[in-house]
């Protein structure tokens, strides 16, 4: 279905600013609980009425009685795994999806298990509202009008070696300088440093590893970097060591932002260092292996219910990430609950023989939309040898295999690619799945 996403967002319901003001007016834990529960009940009623999968599941557990929702049975809803999502994709789509305006989002994610989800216009508008709330209400930055540098991955620009005219015009109008983190040779890093210093942005946002590589290079080469108001690290695990290098290079604070392609914003770090859950957008649970809530300061799996995407509701969706929960109140006074820290999302960058760094996020693209692949893991064993481990649900087509190899060789150059078809790709002892691992860099 083709449609203009921006027009759809503007036409449907509240504006982003109106939604932001509604979120800003949530001042107490009681306000938040009332807001979250009312939106959760509305979502569950919609899903029962319009989504075949949930109509069946909710009926089996007796969750819905007429127009009433028995919230005491919410934790009896089976956790939605990526496997279930793929098996029942058609049954998970709302019967009124065509009235909502939608697009697909494809995620490889931290688990190496590609999935495709439908997202509607209301979800996209709410995503923008959450971002406005985070930057303006929590960090004091008017993000839509701030000069921004985005160090992010673009597969299209990687292959074409350029940013299209339309994209360049849009970036200029929205005060954005886009730098492609999928291409980070020493020449690129030198160019990025010059561009950042010339543009003098108020805000820099990027993949955690890409920000680290840029700042590590600047420190080794003694290159000065412009100091913005804030640096936002996203999409990957930000380690204490990486944070130290980035903050030292930019001479400002790094704020960690936790999100995903499937449900977008989950939590953001405030000025006092707490990770606040955006509970008015995503209802988040932290569960143990038996799907029971973990205690305070214990690590568990992230299970999410997005409150705004009615075209394809994700209810109790297992993200494949891990976090440490907490019940601490934040000294900043914001009523949103907090996480101790995010411990999932593990991926190494690859490096070529000439020193060019290839962002781990690039390797989502060769594997997305491959229905035969259940899970994958890439291991760089040497500069010219890459091993691919895959769990298959059906035979992998020769054309798919060739396309994956061509995309890997495009960034890695001439290299041997070895395939291991396995029954299981085990997690690390910590419970994390390193879907991209470089033995060369380690």
Question: Key features?
Answer:
four-stranded mixed β-sheet; 442 residues; eleven-stranded mixed β-sheet; GMP Synthetase, Chain A, domain 3; Rossmann fold; disordered N terminus
Could you please describe the fold and organization of this structure?
- The chain has 442 residues and is an alpha/beta fold.
- The protein starts with a helix and ends with a strand.
- Among the domains are: 5-128 and 260-342, Rossmann fold; 350-438, 2-Layer Sandwich (GMP Synthetase, Chain A, domain 3), CATH 3.30.300.
- The strands form five sheets. An eleven-stranded mixed sheet has the order 6-5-7-8-9-10-11-15-14-13-12, sandwiched between helices. Strands 20-19-18-21 form a four-stranded mixed sheet, with no helix packed on it. Strands 1-2 form a two-stranded antiparallel sheet.
- Residues 1-12 and 156-163 have low confidence and may be disordered.
- It is built from twelve helices and 21 strands.
* SS summary, helix count: 12
The chain-level mean pLDDT equals 87
Determine the fraction of residues in helical runs and give it as a percent range. 25-40%
Main sheet attributes: strand count, strand direction, barrel closure: 11 strands, mixed
Q: Please give the number of β-strands.
A: 21
Percent in strands: 25-35%
For the record, the CATH class of the domain at 5-128 and 260-342 is: Alpha Beta
User: Which structural category fits the helices and strands?
Assistant: alpha/beta
CATH topology of the domain at 5-128 and 260-342: Rossmann fold
CATH architecture classification of the domain at 5-128 and 260-342: 3-Layer(aba) Sandwich
What would you give as the CATH superfamily of the domain at 5-128 and 260-342?
ANL, N-terminal domain
């Amino acid at each position: 279905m083709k449609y203009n996403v921006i027009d759809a967002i503007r036409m449907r319901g509240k504006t982003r600013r109106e939604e932001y003001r509604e979120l800003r007016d949530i001042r107490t834990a009681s306000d938040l609980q009332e807001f979250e529960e009312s939106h959760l009940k509305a979502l569950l009623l919609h899903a029962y009425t319009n989504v075949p999968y949930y109509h069946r599941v909710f009926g089996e557990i007796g969750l819905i009685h007429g127009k009433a929702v028995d919230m005491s049975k919410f934790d009896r809803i089976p956790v939605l795994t990526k496997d279930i999502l793929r098996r029942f994709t058609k049954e998970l789509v709302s019967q009124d999806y065509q009235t909502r305006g939608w697009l697909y989002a494809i995620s490889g994610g931290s688990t190496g298990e590609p999935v495709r989800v439908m997202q509607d216009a209301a979800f996209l508008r709410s995503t923008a509202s959450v971002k406005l709330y985070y930057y303006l209400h929590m960090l004091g930055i008017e993000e839509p009008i701030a000069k921004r540098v985005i160090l992010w991955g673009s597969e299209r620009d990687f292959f074409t070696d350029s940013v299209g005219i339309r994209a360049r015009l849009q970036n200029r109008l929205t005060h954005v300088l886009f730098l492609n983190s999928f291409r980070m040779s020493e020449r690129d890093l030198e160019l990025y440093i010059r561009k950042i210093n010339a543009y003098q942005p108020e805000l820099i946002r990027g993949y955690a590893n890409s920000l680290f590589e840029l700042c590590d290079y600047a420190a080794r080469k003694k290159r000065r970097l412009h100091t913005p108001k804030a640096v936002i690290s996203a999409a990957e695990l930000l380690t204490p060591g990486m944070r130290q290098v980035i903050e030292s290079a930019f001479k400002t604070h790094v704020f960690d932002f936790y999100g995903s392609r499937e449900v977008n914003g989950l939590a953001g770090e405030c000025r006092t260092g707490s990770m606040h859950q955006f509970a008015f957008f995503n209802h988040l649970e932290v569960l143990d292996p038996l799907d029971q809530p973990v205690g305070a300061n214990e690590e568990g799996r992230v299970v999410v219910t997005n409150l705004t995407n009615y075209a394809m509701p994700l209810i109790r969706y297992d993200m494949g990430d891990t976090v440490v929960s907490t019940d601490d109140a934040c000294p900043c006074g914001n009523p949103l609950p907090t996480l101790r820290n995010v411990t999932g999302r593990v991926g190494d960058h690859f490096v070529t023989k000439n020193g060019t760094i290839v962002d781990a996020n690039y390797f989502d693209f060769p594997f997305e939309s491959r229905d035969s692949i259940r899970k994958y893991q890439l291991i760089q064993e040497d500069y010219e040898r890459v091993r691919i481990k895959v769990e298959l649900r059906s035979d992998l087509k020769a054309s798919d295999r060739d396309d994956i190899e061509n995309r890997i060789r495009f960034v890695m150059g001439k290299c041997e690619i070895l395939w291991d078809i396995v029954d299981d790709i085990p997690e690390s002892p910590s419970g994390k799945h390193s879907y991209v691992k470089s033995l060369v860099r380690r």
